[in-house]
Design goal:
The chain is α+β, with helices and mostly antiparallel strands. Helices cover 49% and strands 16% of the residues. The chain folds into three domains: 222 residues, no CATH class; 317 residues, Roll (C8orf32 fold), CATH 3.10.620; 97 residues, no CATH class. β12 and β13 form a beta hairpin. α3 runs antiparallel to α4, α12 packs across α15 and α24 packs antiparallel against α25. The protein is elongated, with a radius of gyration of 34 Å.
Length: 729
Amino acid sequence: MSGKVRFQEVLLYAGAFLLLTEWLRPLTVVTDTQEIKYFIIFISFCFLALAFRLPFLFVVLGNIALIFYAMNRIYFEVPFFSSGWLTKISTQLLTDVNTIFHWNLPDLSVQMRTVLLFILLWLMAYLIRYWVFYQKRIVFFFSLTIFYVTILDTFSPYDATFAIVRVVIIGFLLLGFLRMDLKQITHVTFSNIESKKRSIILFIGMLFLSIGIAYIAPKPAAQWSDTVPFFTSYAQNSDGEMNDSSGNQRIGYDVDDSKLGGAFVEDDTVVFTAEIDKPHYWRIETKDLYTGKGWELSRNDQRRPLEGNESLFPQYGRGVTKEIYETTVTFQNPTIHLMHVPDLISIDLGEGISSEIAPTNEKLYPYERGELKEITSYRMKYQYPTFDVHALQTSESVEDPLESNALFTRRYTQLPDQLPERVKKLAQEITADAANRYDKVKEIEDYFQANGYVYNTQDVAIPSEGEDYVDQFLFETMKGYCDNFSTSMVVLLRSVDIPARWVKGYTAGEQIGTDSKKQVYEVTKNNAHSWVEVYFPGTGWVPFETTSSLSNPYDFTYRTQQEPTNPNEEAKSEIDIPKKEEKVEETPKKQEKNETSNSEEKNDSLNFSWSISLISLLSFCLITMLLYLTRFKWILYVLVPFYKKRRGNQVFQQAYFLLLNIIERKGIKRAPDETLREFSLRVDQHLNTTLMSELTTRYERVLYGNDEAEEAWKDSVELWENLIKKVGS
């Protein structure tokens, strides 16, 4: 196969690969899938194997190895060659095969579903190859990809703005490459090469012109204020919670908070019941990075075993009064999401099941032999706090290692650069008369109820592009539910440099009875809730409730004069933390660097990185194509000096055949039965010179005579240079 046709195949395979990756990218937004890099590596290998025509057996073995490696990294996180995990996954897959034969598809394990996705991608690679190289058509797959990303853009949280641009560019380039018959390029004459060049440049120019017009043209606003209420497409996840696939309606606890807003759909489905002594909030996770649209995590630390790392949870200072309680939680459906209450002392998930913690968001996960395990109930021992208002009011005089840590302060006072100034100004106005941190927090907490903010779960706005979620709620709509209130309070607190974070989980629920002197509470999806935690030196993270329809379930008391306080003891709450916690908060310089830049990376990871990457890729392709089309003009400046400096018996022969190749590519092709002498005469006639005949005569003397090759090249190099410049002119 000629190099030109091979080059066309590489372009087609690359375009098909890029189109297929557009099907994978939304999975991180619309599903719980977070490890798409393994799927991208897998399809990369599939297309490379097809492009280089690797043996089928080698491809099969390579794909199987990649699948098992991905399963190991996604679900087990143990060394690939360690014993045990391979037997376990094989047994699980064999069980799932039997499940498939009995057509009990809903009972398939998540591991088998992942394997089936790999197999589907494998088949898609072969199907795309058939469309492109045998049917010479890509329009169907191109159109299907556009339909796919536009549907997700409309009915899910996935923002396909740049994805659509990428798909259109890749698709049009693929269509252009399919229309190019590069096999015929080897037979074209010198006279129509320029027209081929102009056609390619015109095609690329029209493509960029179309994209530019589409980008700068005015776009009408959405004609429907809310498209999704016409459709209800909610899918249950592993814990029985309803994932919000619409992006503007929320039901119960949702793992994705990157885009807040829209209606909260009421659902009284029971999530769990609990036996408790006092009502309190059920925490699932915290989030620290506000993007202007919602909440994300500033980093993704590796999960750690909880045992020995209990101090990763909020540890209240010794000045906080605590009562020790135990509770039993029973889920309606098996789940991997564990609720907990600070201060957590211990948690019992059952025999053989351990718990791991994600330090960044303090989320707990149940594990059995290194694999995520759904559970139906567990027991927990914790300390219920009562906060001393006087200690909170004087907390700023207490020395605290975390408060003085620049990394900690920067993390919990982070705000996006595009936050409107009027939000910060409002925070300063609210807290202007407050003398200490606690009073400032209370002023902001009370601000919403005192200024007519309305609790509403249905008519809740979604910020448009360029609009801030908090700014919209504070100054325009003034109505919403817990997410609006809690996020706004955190942002206002951070605007006056008070460390605060966003917490989500469930409220206490509704009491349905008593059992063994404990109160039995039932928690439904309607009890999904978010609230605020503020950091106080010497005390720790203190919860506050700003949602107008709810009140803080924890007690705040004023200490009497007979109760002396020891500020040094209160300060020990975070000072006495074990070394492992210090390692989490006081990270090395490398992690501190990631912390400072992570806000920008998280906010713009999709739009910025892909736009820059796309522009870079297109620029590279355009420059490469222009260099290829003009190679006979610039390559001479590289080859001529190179060959002039070379010495050896083979240089003359290599230089002569290089000249023949350039002449052929310029449209003068040597016939199979034509001698070098005859061909040189024809070239001289075409170029109106005698240089080619003279150079050929010298070459033949070296080839058939006794002339020294190296000396002949020294005498002929100037002649060769003049001839090659004349051919390339």
